[in-house]
Amino acid sequence: MDYTLYYWPLPFRGHFVRYVLAHAGAAWDEGDPSDLARLKALPVGEQPVPFMAPPFLHDHAAGLWLSQLPAILLHLGRGHGLLPEDPARAALTLKLVCDANDVLEEITCNCGRTMWARADWDDFAATRLPRWMAIFEETGRRHGLTAGAGTMLGTDAPGLADLATAALWHTMGAKLPRLGGMLRRNAPRVAALSERIAALPEIAAMIAREDARTGAAYCGGQIERSLRAMLEETEHRT
Amino acid sequence: MDYTLYYWPLPFRGHFVRYVLAHAGAAWDEGDPSDLARLKALPVGEQPVPFMAPPFLHDHAAGLWLSQLPAILLHLGRGHGLLPEDPARAALTLKLVCDANDVLEEITCNCGRTMWARADWDDFAATRLPRWMAIFEETGRRHGLTAGAGTMLGTDAPGLADLATAALWHTMGAKLPRLGGMLRRNAPRVAALSERIAALPEIAAMIAREDARTGAAYCGGQIERSLRAMLEETEHRT
């Protein structure tokens, strides 16, 4: 094994790491959730690296433990040649990863710190969520998704920006189909790119494995129930 | 000018960028808040780079616009030689930057998405905030803050990890002194490092300039009033 990933048996943040590991052809296993819970609760002095919340990645060859999704992704991207060489595009790749991380925070009311209320969801679904979709779409437009000559997204060799984009939007659309429809309307190129990346053989195999393990779950917990309640109610109203 | 920084006239996230720019000896100016408000509200297709929220950095030489604090800091750290060469320590530096970003999110209830309530604050101040402090302290302990032979924090030449640590904790302690006291009790080495970094001549000059411009303000807005109300009430009770 090259890596051990500690994350809940859920797609959400975990799929970002899994997309990259699968695409890089890395050998990894997933830590048992009870081990994850134990690691998370340890006094910081006893943790392999002092950290607050998963995902945690153990890079066996480097003897390195990491938390923080952007740090994990950049480390893997660097180690597996998935980052643009141009410093500006490398910086924009990290910006895109941080954007994706923000979308995860927002769609879960900061990982369930509060639950969704109708008015808040309606506002989010009418303003910030489509704006996030447009940010990704416009990023794609400027970096090659239109012309077939991609410079950061939609290149011949998918890089970290493509993988993070698909891990965000394909996962959301597959688990919450109503939001998949919203994505196709607001960000058709990003939707198509995400489908294409998710269909790459190694990634498709990983998704199938994870779907068998975790079913329809997206982010889990009470916040997933709250999110689904908003989407179902919207369905009934329209 | 090498850079233009667009941020509200506040320390909070802005000071992370200012610490790095000041330490690097870069020439920068600050965009007018009305220009920032205009940039933020533009349709994404008209923004210099599609982005949601400040800080925004315009790197004039590179012709690059960036948002997302971790992306801005890593770009500056790379360009100004402030990142460790060792990939593991570079990854841990980004992890630390993301940790700092999370502390900013948590102390402002995700930038004012909700206001502080007494019970929530008491819980945060008793659990997660000291845990964050302990995470930084333990990171320092493992990376050289004890032995005087720093490998990532407290090295002879301050790097991005030191600058981000000080931008987080010195700023918080200076603007909200009660939390400065909590830091000195929970993370004495980090408190001392933060003082030392903030006292470097270029950084001290930047802080003095900004204090003259923005007074006692920390994160601004209703959420700062909510946070100060919690701290004042705590003062009265003890």
Structural overview:
The structure is a homodimer of 238-residue chains. Chain A is α+β, with helices and mostly antiparallel strands. Chain A has 2 domains: 3-79, Glutaredoxin, CATH 3.40.30.10; 87-237, Glutathione S-transferase Yfyf (Class Pi), Chain A, domain 2 (Up-down Bundle). Helix content of chain A is 63%, strand content 6%. The first copy, chain A, has 12 helices and 4 strands. The first copy, chain A, has helices spanning 12-24, 33-41, 69-79, 87-107, 109-112, 118-126, 128-142, 160-175, 177-186, 188-198, 201-214, 221-237; strands at 3-6, 28-30, 56-59, 64-67. A 4-stranded mixed sheet of chain A has the order 2-1-3-4. In chain A, α1 links the parallel β1 (3-6) and β2. In chain A, α4 runs parallel beside α8 and α8 packs across α10 (188-198). The longest helix of chain A has 21 residues, at 87-107. The N and C termini of chain A lie far apart (49 Å). The model of chain A has no long low-confidence stretch (mean pLDDT 95). At the A-B interface, β4, α3, α4 and α7 of A face β4, α3, α4 and α7 of B.
Task: Give a quick rundown of the structure.
Two copies of one chain form a homodimer. With 238 residues, chain A is an alpha+beta fold. Chain A contains twelve helices and four strands, in the order E-H-E-H-E-E-H-H-H-H-H-H-H-H-H-H.
